[in-house]
Amino acid sequence: MIHRIALSTFGVVVSLGLLAIGIRDCRSGASVLWPAGAAAIFLAATFTLVRDVRDARRPAR
User: Fold this and answer.
1) CA triple 34-40-44, angle to 5 deg
2) Do 5 and 53 touch, CB atoms closer than 8 A?
3) Which of 8, 26, 29, 47 is most buried, by CB atoms within 10 Å?
4) How far apart are CA 39 and CA 8, in angstroms?
């Protein structure tokens, strides 16, 4: 279970970097879809991390 949490945390970090790059590129003239897509990926990665942490805290059946 710890491996899933570590992988989910890595996904949040990577998606946050992608969001930062998307915002930087948008400010320099790129499409607005880059930060919008990166924000969607970040939200999905954050949701996955929260789900994995909740699953890890539940007692085993």
Assistant:
1) 145
2) yes
3) 8
4) 16
For tokens 């945390």, what's the residue?
9
Residue 55's SS3 state is: helix
- Domain presence at residue 22: yes
Check whether 38 has a pLDDT greater than 90.
yes
Range of the structural domain that residue 29 is part of: 12-56
By CB atoms closer than 10 A (0-12, 13-18, 19+), residue 5 is: middle
The answer to whether residue 39 is domain-embedded is yes
Assess if residue 18 is contained within a domain: yes
pLDDT at residue 2 tops 80:
no
The domain tally of the chain equals 1
